[in-house]
Specification:
Number of strands: 7
Shape: globular
Number of helices: 10
Largest sheet: 7 strands, parallel
Distance between the termini: 40 Å
Structural class: alpha/beta
Mean pLDDT: 97
CATH class: Alpha Beta
CATH topology: Rossmann fold
Length: 272
């Protein structure tokens, strides 16, 4: 089992919801915490609730220059980042036929492209150290196509694809990759979701309000990372059943990692 005592955990989207709950959970298990998000004041409120050493690095995940600078600050703080959580994101509540293309671009930019960019910025340091944990917060909607969320599903399916391929690439380099697929968690995800014209929905719904408490979701997630579970489904009822039906078998993940162990990447590089 993995110990988090004295580790440095960097969490994006940390000002509320699952991100803030993960910060509290990892701090309770002895980790130092780096909090990132757009709102420095809200990040400071989260830091005040944490009985651990914290560093606040506010930036917009779409601002690659700010993100690159924050990455260097995070690395320099205690000599490296042990756990990185790609959690920043925004959801959707609109039918495809009604949705502006700009909404697709914004959601995919935030939920997929920016998460890849943040990971890519940190990746060379993790590989050089031959150590680290990457955690990608996807969704049950990254496993099952859910109506009124076509852009969100596209981004979250894509995030799992990136994470699965990256896991295989890093399987011989001491860096673990985990994907989290939450179902309904009691956060502001529905209230902040974009509608067809790009405006925020501004209201929640019963399934979210009655969802898993963020602190409970965070405990399940950290327990699963501690147990080195690669695909982590945090859901209940029908949503859990859907996620389990689409769970990637460990045998398949092992098979792809085995290709790398057998020299697949080296052969591809030599042939290019």
């Amino acid at each position: 089992m993995m110990s988090f005592e004295g580790k440095t955990a960097w969490i994006t989207g940390a000002s509320s919801g699952i991100g803030a709950a993960l910060a509290r959970e990892w701090a309770a298990r002895g980790a130092r915490i780096i909090l990132s998000g757009r709102d420095a004041a809200r990040l400071a409120q989260v830091a005040d609730d944490i009985d651990s050493e914290t560093l606040i690095l506010p930036f917009d995940v779409r601002d690659e220059a700010a993100m690159t600078a924050a990455t260097q600050q995070a690395i320099d703080w205690h000599g490296g980042v042990d756990i990185f959580v790609a959690n920043a994101g925004i959801s959707q509540r609109s039918a495809a036929v009604d949705t502006d293309m700009a909404v697709y671009r914004e959601i995919i930019d935030i939920d997929l492209t920016a998460q890849i960019a943040a990971t890519q910025a940190l990746l060379p340091n993790l590989v050089a150290r031959q150590s680290g944990t990457l955690l990608f917060i996807s969704s049950i909607a990254g496993k099952v196509g859910v109506p009124m969320r076509t852009a969100y599903c596209a981004a979250k399916f894509g995030l799992i694809g990136y994470a699965d391929a990256l896991r295989a690439e890093l399987s011989q380099q001491g860096v673990s990759v985990h994907v989290v697929c939450p179902g309904s968690v009691a956060t502001d995800v529905s209230r902040n979701a974009l509608t067809a014209d790009g405006s925020k929905r501004g209201r929640s719904d019963k399934v979210i309000d009655n969802g898993i408490a963020p602190d409970e979701a965070a405990k399940r997630i950290v327990d699963a990372v501690e147990a080195n579970q690669r695909e982590i489904i945090v859901a209940e009822g029908v949503e859990e059943a859907m996620g389990e039906l689409r769970r990637t078998p460990d045998q398949l993940l092992d098979q792809v990692a085995g290709m790398v162990a057998a020299g697949y990447m080296d052969k591809m590089k030599a042939d290019s």
